[in-house]
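Reopening this one. Same input as before:
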Amino acid sequence: MKLSDLRIGNLIAKVPIVQGGMAVRVSTAPLAAAVANEGGIGLIAGSGLKVEELKEEIRKARELSQGIIGVNIMVAVREFKELVDAAVSEGIDLIVAGAGFSRDLFTVGKETGVEIVPIVSSVKLAKISEKLGASAIVVEGKEAGGHLGTDQPMKTLVEKIVKAVKIPVIAAGGIIDGKDIAEVLKLGASGVQMGSRFVASTECEVDDSFKQTYINASKEDSVLINSPVGLPGRALKNEFFDRLSSNEVDTGKSCDYICLKKCSHSFCIMDSLIKAQEGNMTHGLVFAGERAHLIDKVLPVKEIINNLVSEARKYLGGEEEDE
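Same output, byte for byte:
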């Protein structure tokens, strides 16, 4: 079995790897561009950015890369439509959307030619997405970092969904190395989405302490929190998590961001994610996948992708030459 291209509508990625769009300001232009330059698909996280900020990130990515650049925007954010419109106006290649489901997004895709890729966690939503015109779907399991739509393992979902739809299935959640990639491709997935591995890259713009939280993590440090978004979220234990568990975190009822359509006000998700990106572990929430503890080095994106491709080819049993 060969490591094939990833085809999403009219887009063709030489390497079947989508870099996850992680907010807030974790997945920015330098990271997305670096992944695109290596033949993968780079995603900028739009959630948590203002419209003009997202436009600027897309422009920066375009300056740094001629590859495939997309955005990930949470349906749950208040300015979802405005951010989508901004991305389209900047000529974005694809839009990945999770933390909710938007039927209107498919109309945008049909009218503009932008490829639409929803994140789903059930056969039902996968079928609906295909019917509405999705170019591909990201199937995300419980192992993923950030907001989760299921308690089911990724591989179980992938096995069911690849049999239910004809559009490309991109597996997400707990994928760290080339062996993981090979395993899901053998299950019928067309590609993978990886977030956590790219946090520990030199191009990722988070503070070094954020990256070291990954490097120093143990298996037991992966935890679930109740997010104000209304979904469980997978994160890593740190000082903020300890304070949250002890009810020492401000409920955030007086909000400076008003970022969500609906907010439980259990704490301010926006503020905590920004603080983490800046390196404030006392007040910062660090989202990460269930297997982030397996990452032991911060490497350049080029080296990460070269390693992933080499390992995947090994486990697929094919050492095909690059075209």
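So the earlier flakiness isn't reproducible anymore. For the record, Residues 208-292 form one domain.
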